[in-house]
Amino acid sequence: MNIIMIGTGYVGLVSGACLASLGHTVTCVDIDPAKIDSLEKGGCPLYENGLPELLKTTQKSGNLTFSLGLPESLEDADAVFLGVGTPQGDDGKADMRFINAAFGDVLPKLYPHTVVVTKSTVPVGTADRLLAWMKTDRPELPGHIASNPEFLREGTAVQDFLKPDRIVSGANTEHGTAVLKAIYQPLEDAGHPHLQIDPQSAELAKYAANAFLATKISFINEMAGLCEHTKADVGAVAQAMGMDNRIGKRFLRAGPGYGGSCFPKDTSALTHIAKEAGIPVQITQAAIDANTAAQERVIEKISNMTSLEGKTIACLGLTFKADTDDMRDSPALTILPALQAKGAHIKAIDPAGMSQAKKLLDITFCDSVATCLAKSDIVIMMTEWPEYTGLNPADICAMMNQHASIADLRRVWTPERLKQAGFKNTYVLGS
Ligand code: UGA
Q1: Which residues contact 169 (CB under 8 A, 6 or more apart)?
Q2: pLDDT category of residue 123 using cuts at 50, 70 and 90
Q3: Residue 302 confidence (pLDDT) above 90
Q4: 110 Cβ partners below 8 Å, 6+ apart?
Q5: Using CB atoms within 10 A as the burial measure, which of 283, 294, 309, 350 is most buried?
Q6: For the whole model, what pTM was predicted?
Q7: Which of 51, 154, 158, 270 to mutate to test the pocket of ligand 1 (most atoms within 8 A of CB)?
Q8: Looking at ligand 1, which atom is closest to the CA of residue 383?
């Protein structure tokens, strides 16, 4: 199949390279000349496992090319994917500016056989809206529109694309359904199910999946709070829950709240979609509120360990999770300024997120774990990078000031182990 992928951000570039690796001819389009130039020269603008290698092999095979703006003609395209961003607008709704601009560019150039597919996360009803737009501006076209949401996690996006639990697509015509089937046939042949449903359900399924996962995390984080006030341990509770196949053990890791570019934005957008439909989604709203509460609880717990006035805190990890350089909605962005406001001086280190973090946090950035820990009174395990979780807590304690405290927000160690390591005050989230 011949595919045009508009947008070389996270969704577009990973999807474009993966589709090219399946044997399709893919042109990735962007309006940013520097980005296209760098990609053409073999650069990779994203921190993503396996992506630089995939870009290299697919460019070399000739299956993947780049274009600044749309190619002259779209005549050869079987499908045009819209993979541009749908960030959170000021009002919490999905901001559709980039989708509208991309579709507005494509529409005058569209051929009757080409299917327009939204890959970005878009509010339910977007396919209908784009179709109505198409019918008004190009009434002679048959109008093939589809939704094909992605379920890629940062850090494992390439693997998630090429070995998906499921592919979901929804086209409004038989031709569109057939084109999407052909695009994903190599993955179906490898045993990955492809669920072809209607466009509206495909659009909503993406929000529903993210909201459900966010709810699962918020649920276990609430249990973690309860565990902290009882003798229960959230790790054991999650294990007992997760062994029930109806519940499943994944996404039951308690932590400082979910962050990233997806769960916060998509849960917020879903509540707006629902409000507009007059059907409030109370559980999703509760998951959002519980996520805020989880971070507030962490701030309170750390503040109660010892007075923060004049203390130095060493923060290990800043990104919203390991294996990404993404700082968007990272819990560190809420927790660290709150601790600063209570009089603490913050030093931090992260293997990948430092350059983004420097734009967002007014703290001291360190270039080694040793300098971060030196002369610190409290250490926070913020992000579960193996570089930090693999450290020996006794070594950490030895590098810090006397009578040091530790807040383990990722549950790497037990309170007993931390006490044995020499820490005076210990807080292990959910224990
Ligand atoms: C998420 C979804 O997992 C993907 O399926 C989806 O495609 C993507 O959003 C998207 O909409 O594009 P991602 O944001 O990369 O992917 O990150 P996750 O691995 O899902 O983690 C999100 C947050 O939840 C992180 O802050 C993580 O630390 C937290 N989390 C995750 C927990 O606190 N506990 C868990 O058990 C799992």
Answers
A1: 117, 146, 147, 148, 177, 180, 184, 194, 195, 196, 197, 202
A2: very high
A3: yes
A4: 74, 80, 116, 134, 138, 141
A5: 350
A6: 0.97
A7: 154
A8: 28
